[in-house]
TrEMBL record:
It comes from the Bacteria. GO terms for cellular component: cytosol. The keyword GTP-binding does not apply. This is LysR family transcriptional regulator. The keyword Transcription regulation applies.
Length: 313
């Protein structure tokens, strides 16, 4: 429970539960006490904060404004307590990290392992979200920092570091296409292909490439999940179009081969570490951000030295 204001705690819980009764059960306090604090606040603000409906409580426009301010205040308070801990020399803390599902099998496991090895008192709270939802979640205080794929130009977010991964074709190691280097879509079109589907961002990229080159791929299957696509490729159903980030771990283990898309101006997938420009991050959060930057730099070095299609064993 946050200090300084009982009303704030009561208000936030009623907003979440949409019911004074359920909020009272959750906080283990009388519902009349919660209602009294809300009525006092509404009297002071000279406006209702909730609509009292037969089905429960719903925030008014003024209530929504207060809810947003309260969320930001709680985030600032969490930052303050972490900074106070650091001033006191306490070697612990936690960092809330937002990330897309594509990183759940690559980067994130390595990040957790490194943080635990170097700073065992630090807890990483990782929330996996749709890539398009991460920006708003970060700005609403749901995370301290975030990993975002192909971030748009955003004035309210600060990019701490970024790395670009090539797009290309993935196939089993023994496939005929694995013997060469970069490939065009036209070269791959005759082979059975697992085509990426929405909501995968690569779906629209693939469609634009096919239209621009007037290529009709040989479709063996369609899938909207990267893990499913990789499983189908590994089973020999067909080749597919993915980013090197999607298959990096399988390529490095020698399970799959990756051939970059050929061309002078081929698109790439950008991975960036971002933060809310208005927030002061704790030293613990900076430390986690630096570890992420180091991992990304190693990935880039690995791609530069070995090439995505021919990793070292």
């Amino acid at each position: 429970m946050y200090p300084f204001s009982r009303f704030l705690t009561y208000f936030m819980e009623v907003a979440r539960q949409k019911s004074i009764r359920r909020a009272a059960d959750e906080l283990r306090i009388a519902g009349s006490a919660i209602n009294r604090h809300i009525l006092l606040a509404e009297d002071q603000l000279q406006t209702p904060l909730f609509e009292r409906l037969p089905t429960g409580m719903r925030l008014t426009a003024a209530g929504e404004l207060l809810y947003g301010c309260a969320r930001r205040w709680m985030t600032d308070y969490d930052d303050l307590t972490r900074q106070i801990d650091e001033v006191k020399g306490i070697r612990r803390g936690q960092v809330d990290l937002l990330a897309p599902e594509a990183l759940s099998r690559v980067l994130l496991p390595e990040l957790i392992a490194r943080v635990q090895a170097r700073h065992p008192g630090v807890v990483l709270n990782i929330s996996i979200l749709e890539n398009k939802r991460i920006r708003q979640a970060l700005l609403s205080g749901e995370g301290d920092i975030a990993l975002v794929l192909d971030p748009e130009e955003m004035r309210d977010l600060l990019v701490r570091s970024r790395v670009a991964f090539p797009l290309g074709f993935v196939c089993p190691r023994g496939h005929l296409l694995a013997r060469g280097g970069a490939l065009s879509l036209a070269q791959c079109a005759p082979y059975p292909m697992i085509v990426p589907e929405p909501p995968l961002a690569l779906s629209s990229v693939f469609s634009r490439l096919a239209a621009a080159e007037h290529v009709v791929p040989t479709v063996a299957a369609r899938a909207n999940n990267v893990q499913m696509i990789k499983s189908l490729v590994a089973e020999g159903v067909g080749i597919s179009f993915l980013s090197y980030l999607d298959v990096m771990s399988e390529v490095m283990r020698g399970e799959l081969a990756f051939m970059p898309l050929s061309g002078a101006d081929v698109p790439r997938l950008t991975l960036a570490v971002v933060q809310d420009r208005t927030r002061q991050l704790s030293r613990t959060t900076h430390m986690v951000g630096n570890i992420i930057r180091d991992i990304m730099a190693q990935y880039l070095q690995k791609m530069t030295q070995d090439g995505p299609a021919n990793p070292t064993a």
